[in-house]
Design brief:
CATH class of the largest domain: Alpha Beta
Strand order of the largest sheet: 2-1-3-12-11-4-5-10-8-9
Keywords: Amino-acid biosynthesis, Branched-chain amino acid biosynthesis, Leucine biosynthesis, Magnesium, Manganese, Metal-binding, NAD, Oxidoreductase
EC number: 1.1.1.85
Helix content: 40-55%
Domain Isopropylmalate dehydrogenase-like: 6-356
InterPro entries: ICDH/IPMDH, IsoCit/isopropylmalate_DH_CS, IsoPropMal-DH-like_dom
CATH architecture of the largest domain: 3-Layer(aba) Sandwich
Number of domains: 2
Radius of gyration: 20 Å
Number of strands: 12
Structural class: alpha/beta
Order of helices and strands: EHEHHEHEEEEHEHEHEHEEHHH
Shape: globular
Largest sheet: 10 strands, mixed
Mean pLDDT: 94
Strand content: 15-25%
Low-confidence stretches: none
Number of helices: 11
Enzyme class: oxidoreductase
Length: 363
């Protein structure tokens, strides 16, 4: 019997609905063509515009839809001119991370030969690594609650054994899965600042304990400043990088830069029971409603969702369609077909999405 999966859909703010619509269309067509799975989409209202209209940025009904779903697909959220009364940004995506304990922020970085990149890729080299960012604590622990005084301000960095053990177990499992799929050498690198901060020495100690449980995989360390250098000098050397929240926040944008920009950067936030898939970029209200937004990061995030569902539920059809969708986007980028203006082209949202659809169903 065909497995049918419930997907909570947060359409987002600004360009969010514009990039979500073609993504859902593609997912619906893929599911309809498959005899291995089905998808049911459930709208979950939330975000800055919803807050402006109702006074609630993440209604309990939407949270319940997310909790009950098999996966959560979330578009760009937030608007700069709509904020909470204390001046902080409205970001339901962070609320979801904390409420659902989505400790593993997954940021894939992939550049094939022929794909535009600021780097000069040596012949025969491609970039294919994953940055895993702890997403619930670290330097984001006191987000919005820092201690600000007239002459100084303090934030608290928090690293717990419980979350770190889950994070590192996830990272080594991913390295194992990537190696089995022929996409990685089975290497996990802990990125920290253990030479300066005791909290990161603690972080590294927990990493080493988990590494000892995986003698078939390679484990090593890198200081975050050195990693920023190496991600530019030799990004093809890496497989799985795992790091603290703030370091991961910074390095993931560097990874997006290697791919050509945030418009090509997908992401996932994954816990033991739930997962959110969303593009790394913002809601770009300055171009909202003009049909100019780049939908590729949203579509790549949907590909990650299919892959995760396939692995979690042992459903090869889902995993295969996740790969097909990712490769279709990569093909569009490598051929320079229907690229949006943020990545050097002139195409609009509809044309870029149609190019992916054609790569899937026409080519």
């Amino acid at each position: 019997m065909t497995q049918t999966f419930d997907i909570a859909v947060f359409h987002g703010d600004g360009i969010g609905p514009e990039i979500m619509a073609p993504t859902l269309d593609i997912l619906g067509r893929m599911a309809e063509a498959s005899d291995g799975y089905g998808l049911r989409f459930h709208d979950a209202p939330a975000g800055a515009a919803h807050y402006a209209a109702t006074g609630d940025s993440l209604p309990e009904t939407s949270m319940q839809i997310a909790r009950n779903a098999d996966a959560i697909l979330l578009s760009a959220m937030g608007l700069p001119d709509i904020r909470y009364e204390d001046g902080t940004e409205i970001s339901p995506q962070i609320d979801l991370r904390k409420a659902l304990t989505l400790f593993a922020g997954v940021r894939p970085v992939r550049v094939r030969q022929g794909q535009p990149t600021p780097l000069n890729l040596p012949k025969g080299k491609e970039i294919d690594f994953v940055l895993i960012r702890e997403s619930t604590e670290g330097l984001f622990y006191t987000q919005g609650c820092g201690d600000v005084r007239p002459d100084e301000a303090r934030e608290t960095l928090r690293i717990t054994r419980d979350i770190s053990e889950k994070l590192f177990r996830f990272a080594f499992d991913m390295a194992q899965t990537r190696r089995a799929a022929g996409r990685g050498q089975g290497r996990v690198t802990c990125v920290d600042k253990a030479n300066v901060f005791r909290a990161f020495a603690f972080f590294r100690e927990i990493f080493d304990a988990e590494a000892a449980r995986h003698p078939d995989l390679t484990a090593d360390h890198a200081y975050v400043d050195a990693m920023a250098l190496w991600m530019v000098q030799k990004p093809w050397d890496f497989d799985v990088l795992v790091t603290e929240n703030m370091f991961g926040d910074i390095l993931s944008d560097l990874g997006a830069g290697l791919m050509g920009g945030l418009g090509l950067a997908p992401s996932a936030d994954i816990g033991l029971d739930h997962a959110v898939f969303q593009p790394c970029h913002g809601s770009a209200p300055d171009i909202a409603g003009q049909g100019l937004a780049n939908p590729l990061a949203m579509i790549l995030s949907a590909a990650m969702m299919l892959d995760w569902l396939g692995i979690k539920h042992d459903n090869p059809a889902l995993a295969q369609d996740g790969r097909r969708l990712r490769e279709a986007v990569e093909d569009v980028i490598a051929r320079g077909a229907a690229l949006t203006r943020d990545i050097g082209g002139t195409a609009g949202t509809a044309a870029a999405a149609q190019a992916v659809t054609d790569a899937l169903f026409v080519a």
